[in-house]
Amino acid sequence: MLTSSSNNQFGNGGAPAGEPQLAGQGAPAPIEAPILLQYWHVVLRWKWVIAGVLVASLVAGVIVTLLSTPQFRATSRIEISREQKKVTNVQGLDSEEEGRDQEFYQTQYSLLQARSLAERVERELKLGTNNAFFASHGVNPDKNALFSEDTKVLTAAERARRSKMAISLLLDHVVISPIARSRLIDVSYRSASPELAAAIANAWVNQFIAANMDRRFASTADARKYLENRLNDLRTKLERSEREVVTYANEKDIVSLGQNQSGGRTTVERTLVSQDLDALNTALAEATSQRIAAESRLRSNNARGAADNALTNPAINGLRQRRAEVAAEYSKVLVQFEPEYPAAKALANQLQVLDQSIAREESRVQTNVSANYAEAKARELGLQQRVAELKARLQNQQSDSIQYNIYQREADTNRQIYEGLLQRYKEIGVAGIGTNNVSVVDAARIPESPASPRLFVNLAVALVLGLLVSGVAVFALDQIDEGLREPGQVNRLLHLPLLGSVPDVEGGSTLDLLSDVKSHLAEAYLSIRSNLAFSSDHGVPRSFMVTSTRAAEGKSTTSFALASLLARVGKRVVIVDADMRSPSLNAMLGLHNDRGLSNFLAGENDWRPMVQETRFANLSIITAGPMPPSAAELLSSDRVLLLIKQLTEHFEHVVIDAPPILGLADAPLLSRAVEGCIVVAEAEGVAIRGVKGAIDRLRSVHAHIYGVVLTKLKQRQAGYGYGYGYGYGYGPGSDTRDAA
């Protein structure tokens, strides 16, 4: 199976299939591996460092466990009922329930860890003079003492010093553990002596209860005297404020018809003026509705006559029905007789009388509509005048009510404070102060087994610390390492296309691996050759050189592999070993190096005798030749340009195995004779800044760089989408050797 660079035909730096990418064009951004996969590869890379740190941490945990003094823990469980102190029973600005429980219990937890409580326990058990107490904590209180260990001869200053040491030890070894969503609290004490641990835990609880009682007694002792003085002052103040309210209401004629008491506040719901205004306003709305209806009927009569209004009049409707009946009978008579016939004449007179009656009724209805409108309008005007008068009175009363409300609020406040203090005064007089809200649920017992050290807990802690230390170490080592670690860094850091990556394989010679078309190495270089075919507008360049930052990065192997792959498809290829300082291709192919490139550059004009055939079809080689005194001086002449020009006339492709770039001038000089360059970089080899420096040297001489080939890539370095773990090949008989 091919790697992602083979499947894409461009790796991370190529163009889409079928579209040539020139070397100067920008390459698309590489596909980043998932972050978790990147972390996993970092872990695999530094696995032995991580393992060493973890083993050292676990060994340290075991040693600490074996050397630690056994510690016993005694625990006493108590229950604290919520109690809210209300000496004055006066509501504050905040809600009565808001944060009450949380504040109360947080206060109790702090009191359980207070230094004053530790002082009470120390005095109760006389721990300052108890050498066994100090010994149980591994402390020698008399290390710098001026006197002997006999406590009878201790001075007051020495006893005070020992008491302070005992109090500090108590606070350091007591643990307060509230039980979630309950009123229970565990008070634990750790000591090397199980008897002392149980005694101190029980004494701690007992002294907490005693201290709670003392605080309650002290807080209520002065409460009665304080409340008595406050009640006398508030009583006088309340009487004065209530008198001011009544006096002001009488002066301003404020008659209250209803009051509402809510939350200790008195509010006037309705006054006499406001009630009269509501009643008159309702009557005015009704009168206005009646006037509008009468005006509508009057306009209808004026516009269309009384006929429409008469439609709803029972008398008119009855006359019209009678006329219709007489008219029907008259029509029947006219069918048989003449109009002068007596019966017909009588019916005609009857019709005339009915018409006159209908006209009189309609006139009466119209007159009645006009009278109703005039009456409704007069009533509306009268009510409007009365409402306006009451509005003026109500506005004046509302202005007066501002001061009235001030007096009323002052009276309500005084009354509320007075009633609260009076109620609390009664409670203090009736209720005793001997009750306690703290009770012991389980007294501490002498522990039978030590609570620490615990091997598994210490190992777990050591493991966590080891993971943290190893994480920091791996991060630091990974940041220090500046080499190319995975193919995705080529485009991101070097801003050059990635032509392909070559796995680091072990077993077998390089020639054998390249000869096996199913091997990892052959598949990798086949992918590189395919990507190189799209690096120019005419396919694989006619002449190109392969160079690297330093020696032993795989440039000679890459040069030979690309040349052999081109020859394998029927192309006539010649490879020139231009590394005259350290030739290697002749040894790789088992050829002599008597004559070669150095001879031609030194003055020999015929290069044909220097060409040697290899055991690979269509592949020839010109070796480096004898080592010259100055390779750079030979390469700086124009003869290298002449040689490449003549070789391209006889061969389809010319591949130059150039020397490394850093420290030498050979590669930049050779770059002017070829179409472009391929830079070989070893994974985890030269630092990024070194590779960038080499590329900058090529760019400074305007060399055309097709891309980078990343060599000696291990499977753990491959990263997402570049690994060779699935292997190359096409069937059961394919090469399944793993990359080193």
* General form: flat
Q: Helical amount among residues, as a percent range?
A: 40-55%
Structural class: alpha/beta
CATH H level of the largest domain: which superfamily?
A: P-loop containing nucleotide triphosphate hydrolases
Strand content: 5-15%
What's the overall average pLDDT, rounded?
Answer: 78
Q: What is the topological layout?
A:
Layout: H1 4-8, H2 35-45, H3 47-67, E1 72-80, H4 100-112, H5 115-125, H6 131-136, H7 156-173, E2 174-178, E3 184-191, H8 194-221, H9 223-251, E4 256-262, E5 265-271, H10 272-304, H11 307-310, H12 314-336, H13 342-430, E6 438-442, H14 455-480, H15 488-494, E7 498-503, H16 510-515, H17 520-533, E8 543-548, H18 555-568, E9 573-577, H19 585-589, H20 597-602, E10 611-613, E11 619-622, H21 631-635, H22 639-650, E12 653-657, H23 666-671, E13 676-682, H24 688-700, E14 705-713
Parallel strand pairs: 7-14, 8-12, 8-13, 9-11, 9-12, 13-14
Antiparallel strand pairs: 1-3, 1-6, 2-3, 4-5, 10-11
Would you kindly provide a written description of the structure presented here, covering whatever features stand out?
- The chain has 740 residues and is α/β, with parallel strands linked by helices.
- It has 4 domains: 262 residues, P-loop containing nucleotide triphosphate hydrolases (Rossmann fold, 3-Layer(aba) Sandwich); 56 residues, no CATH class; 145 residues, no CATH class; 160 residues.
- 55% of the residues lie in helices and 12% in strands.
- The strands form 3 sheets. The chain has an 8-stranded mixed sheet, with helices on both faces. A 4-stranded antiparallel sheet has the order 2-3-1-6.
- α3 runs antiparallel to α14, α9 packs antiparallel against α13 and α17 crosses α18.
